[in-house]
Design brief:
- The chain is built from 18 helices and 8 strands.
- It is of the alpha/beta class.
- The protein has 3 domains: 125 residues, YqgF/RNase H-like domain (Nucleotidyltransferase, domain 5); 128 residues, no CATH class; 138 residues, no CATH class.
- A 6-stranded mixed beta sheet has the order 3-2-1-4-5-6. A two-stranded antiparallel sheet has the order 7-8.
- The longest helix is centred in the middle third of the chain and has 36 residues.
- The protein is globular, with a radius of gyration of 30 Å.
């Protein structure tokens, strides 16, 4: 006898549960909170003799589902998850005009019969895993810092090009600390070259010295000459720059601390460095891949691994017709991002990947499309290595093991992409898009707007 418990997870309200036995509803709409007393009461109401006969179906909702899933898993129940997109489609089929928590819980209880292939076994803590959570947090902070740098660039440009030339584009700690205190050109001139030199030497650990201080003083004088006496309120501008520089300094320190934690967590998650052994995978990328993939054995096949990344194309098939469009993007966006970056680097080292990239580009494929294909190949190989417990072995196209230096030499010699051919392929793709656009315009009505120039010549002669 099989029991199914469908739970509609709420974040700030009570959850609702429905119990089904062999597809038939036993009871529905039981409300409970994520509290030990409520969970114990629900477990008593289930009245299941063997916990192994119970399947708990949960739709992941933020992080509120993790605690409930772990509680039932510790009790011996089988916990499965359903993607939110699939449950939404089935919900529309099940009840067209009404949507509430009771219907959602009843739908989840019937899912093992309606769509068993859409269920995914819960095998770990997911977002509760420290490495998985931390690499996402690092990615978010890096993107925030990039946004701060962009705003900082826009403000520094008001001071003139000489400041940008002296401070550089990467905004190291010395540059940020200088901008946080001395973004006013009047303050720089009053400070003087000697004191500014001592400050820069201390903040940059000797990388910036007297010549750099002289360049910044000259840049400050140039700014005053550009704006004149009353052209700009430099004190207010310096305050705005200081706010952005202090944010960048804070984020830089936070990212450094996170990097140290990520290094330790990755060493525990992958002690043999199997993910890091893949070409094009650095310390940060390997931690992201290991953290976001999690347990490699939770996938039923390597095809399921590729599908989980969202890098596989959408397929529409009917009879003998089959159309593959853009990628599904149904998986983890951070994992897709690092896999594409790793694939772009791996094609410069791995001859097998470089050969596939050359074949794809020879078929007039766009670079980004080719990289998506390589990323699916990369994740398949990495997960296969994780499952087998063996590091990634770099090989030539004939299967001969090679070193990284030999791989780079082979790729450079055999699989270099001619820039002229790439430009020509881009031109052919552009012409094809223009032909398709022209075909769509020809099917429109004569009065529809068009991007083609209007015909100003008369269609017939006027006879007086």
């Amino acid at each position: 006898m099989a029991f199914t418990l469908g739970i509609d997870i709420a974040v700030r309200a009570a959850h609702q549960a429905t119990l089904a036995r062999d597809g038939a509803t036993v009871w529905r709409g039981r409300k409970f909170w994520t509290r030990p007393s409520d969970l114990e009461r629900l477990w008593t109401d289930l009245d299941v003799a063997d916990p192994g006969e119970l399947t708990v179906v949960i739709e992941p909702t933020r992080n509120a589902w993790i605690v409930v899933a772990e509680w039932f898993r510790r009790r011996g129940a089988r916990v499965v998850m359903v993607p939110t997109t699939q449950s939404a489609d089935l919900r529309r089929y099940y009840s067209k005009h009404t949507k509430n928590d009771r219907i959602d819980s009843e739908l989840l209880a019937r899912l093992p019969l309606l769509h068993p292939d859409g269920l995914r076994e819960y095998s770990g803590q997911g977002p509760a895993d420290a490495l998985r959570r931390l690499v996402k947090q690092r990615s978010t902070m890096v993107k925030r810092r990039v946004a701060v740098y962009a705003r900082l660039d826009a403000l520094v440009e008001l001071l003139g090009p000489s400041w940008y030339a002296m401070l550089g584009s990467n905004y190291g700690l010395a540059a940020l600390e200088f901008l946080a205190r001395y973004a006013d050109p009047n303050t720089v001139i009053r400070l003087g070259q000697a004191r500014l030199s001592r400050l820069l030497i201390a903040r940059s650990r000797g990388a910036w010295r007297e010549d750099h201080a002289a360049g910044l003083v000259a840049a400050a004088r140039e700014t005053l000459a550009l704006w004149g006496a009353d052209g700009m309120d430099f004190a207010e501008l310096a305050e705005d720059i200081a706010h952005e520089a202090e944010q960048a300094l804070f984020l830089t320190r936070q990212i450094k601390q996170i990097d140290e934690r990520v290094t330790n967590l990755y060493a525990d998650a992958d002690p043999d460095g199997i993910v890091a052994s893949a070409p094009g995978v650095g310390p940060v990328t390997s931690a992201v891949i290991a953290g976001r993939i999690g347990d490699p054995h939770r996938f039923t096949s390597l095809a399921a691994v590729r599908a989980s990344t969202g890098l596989v194309p959408k397929v529409s098939q009917s009879g003998v017709s089959k159309v593959e469009s853009s990628i599904t993007k149904a998986g983890d966006p951070l994992l897709r991002e690092v896999l594409c970056h790793a694939a772009d680097q791996a094609r410069k080292v791995d001859p097998q990947i470089a050969a596939k990239y050359q074949r794809l580009m020879a078929g007039d494929r766009h670079h980004d499309s080719a990289i998506c294909h390589l990323a699916t190949l990369m994740v398949t190989r990495i997960v296969a290595c994780m499952r087998n417990g063996q590091p990634y072995t770099l090989r030539d196209v004939d299967g001969t093991p090679i070193t990284e230096a030999e791989g780079r030499a082979i790729v450079k010699e055999r699989y270099a992409i001619d820039q002229k051919n790439r430009v020509a392929a881009a031109g052919r793709r552009m012409q094809q898009r223009h032909r398709q656009a022209a075909g769509r315009e020809s099917q429109e009505s004569q009065s529809a707007p068009t991007s083609q120039p209007a015909n100003t010549k008369p269609t017939s002669r006027h006879v007086a």
